Amino acid sequence: MKIDPDSTKDLSAQIAEAIRDGIVAGDLIVDQRLPSESELADQFEVSRPTVREALKRLAAQSLIRTQRGASGGAFVNRLRFEEAYDQQVTTSSLLLSMNAVSFDVACEARYALERACAPLSAQRRTPDHLATMRAEIHRQGQPGLTDEAFCASDVTFHRALVDGAGNKVLSYQLAGAVEAMQPLMNMITFTARSRETIVDLHTDIADAVEAQDSAKTEATLLKLEAYTRELAHTVVSARAAKKQEQQSA
Amino acid sequence: MKIDPDSTKDLSAQIAEAIRDGIVAGDLIVDQRLPSESELADQFEVSRPTVREALKRLAAQSLIRTQRGASGGAFVNRLRFEEAYDQQVTTSSLLLSMNAVSFDVACEARYALERACAPLSAQRRTPDHLATMRAEIHRQGQPGLTDEAFCASDVTFHRALVDGAGNKVLSYQLAGAVEAMQPLMNMITFTARSRETIVDLHTDIADAVEAQDSAKTEATLLKLEAYTRELAHTVVSARAAKKQEQQSA
DNA sequence: GCCGGATTAATTGTCAGACATTAAAATGTA
DNA sequence: TACATTTTAATGTCTGACAATTAATCCGGC
Where are the alpha helices (DSSP H) in chain B? Predict the structure, then answer.
């Protein structure tokens, strides 16, 4: 585990990379303790602050965790789905906003992935998943719910659907996509009538999943996608019209 | 943008979080320059090394980039799909290895996602995508190809299929999943006969995509998934038998 | 007046050493 | 043995300095 003296990169970046490679390659195993900062500084022939910057880089990716006190130090972290999930949501959100991904593209991806889960979910969903879905449907029907709360409930509903597939890898990948889309969804104003339509579709989905009817689940998801995109288009054109009106006034 | 004086968290973690929130919330926009390290140190009432550790954390997530020299500094980075993609592959790989996700679960997730792309890809694939798929199929038929090279070609083939859907979000999500699985795939020893079967299935997929036959594409992917899992089981049981033999000897 | 090279200034990168804080381990004591 | 105290090893933080880099500025020559 050595570093290149005269690379263009920062020393701390090189050191972080060296350690990361060690973790990915399996040289450093879970819960193993890294040498202390001073020892690492000696090994790499750099100062302790430089080592610390490298360790912070790794900590930011949840690759290590640190503990203070005697017999403390930096330990290789067991990366859990939850931690990775948070990072993915942040990253996906930024990707969507910074690259100006259109609502259509994001929506298409989301529902395509969700339909991929549908057959598995119809087959394996537990009563728990069904209960969550029904509970969220009920919440979505409550009057006086803010748009944000409605969207949050929507996310929970779809997560239950995805989790029903009983495949952690799928849940991880997809929940990120679904949650990252929430800021985009929040831009939509949901009228009472559109909420009613969505609740109806959700009910159809829950019924289909309960009946283990994968074809109907997929078909209803397709309808929901179409309706969501239609709603978004209406909102967008309404805004455009309003803008034009203001400009001409 | 303030920090909590007596939280249990590190100061550098708090500062990183404060800045990250600013970026995610849109207070700091792309290519905007952050205050210099000294100024940030004054603002947050901490020392410069602490600020630096915070900035390194953000740099590790590609949220900022730094530039030396006069009029240098830290700038909000436009997160690109490529950078995010690298991170996702690393994270997904570690998730798979550290959480001991079984081959079956990973494989199921991968092909479920891939089938989600199939209809879109059948509809939108360009001649470029088809050419890449054909070229990789040809390579996979070459004798003398190492197992690693065969797997790498397999990844390229499937990426072309996914990219054919013409949806960057899908490509991003899925390419990560496909590539992260490669280490698992590399554990499989491909016999000449199994390679032949896979090449045949790949050919069927390419044909179906070329003919824009989404149903057949999905069906063939299903076959490929089943065959891949069968292969993996054979390898696993062969190893188990060998192990038992060694133990009894 | 304009161009090119030297100078300057601002900023990050790195270092050294010190002290504060934390928490486990060792030690002493009832 | 059980509990309180001390020791110790580690990270967390600070101060101050210097090196390296790069854009802007200045200045001289044409």
Answer: 11-25, 37-44, 48-60, 81-98, 103-124, 127-141, 147-163, 168-180, 182-186, 192-210, 214-248
Could you report the per-residue pLDDT of A45-72, keeping only the tens digit for each? 999 999 999 999 999 999 999 999 988 9
Please spell the DSSP secondary structure of A165-201, one letter per residue: T--HHHHHHHHHHHHHTHHHHHTSPPPHHHHHHHHHH
- B contact residues 40-99, partner A, Cβ 8 Å cutoff: 49, 52-54, 56-61, 63, 78-81, 84, 87-88, 90-99
In which band, very low, low, confident or very high, does the pLDDT at B178 lie, cut at 50, 70 and 90?
confident
Q: From the CA of B227, how many Å to the nearest CA of chain A? A: 19
Band of residue A37 on the pLDDT scale cut at 50, 70, 90: very high
Is A169 an 8 Å CB contact of chain B? yes
DSSP conformational letter for B188: S
Most confident of B3-7, B88-92, B174-178: B88-92
What interhelical angle do A168-180 and B103-124 show, nearest 10? 50
Calculate the angstrom distance between C1' of C23 and CA of A81: 29
Q: Which chain B residues touch A161 with a CB distance below 8 Å?
A: none
Q: Is the pLDDT of residue B34 over 80?
A: yes
Contact residues, chain B, for A9 at CB < 8 Å: none
Task: Give the 3-state secondary structure of residue B33.
Answer: strand
CA B8 to C1' C28 (Å) is 33
Q: What φ, ψ does residue A33 adopt, rounded to 5°?
A: -90, 135
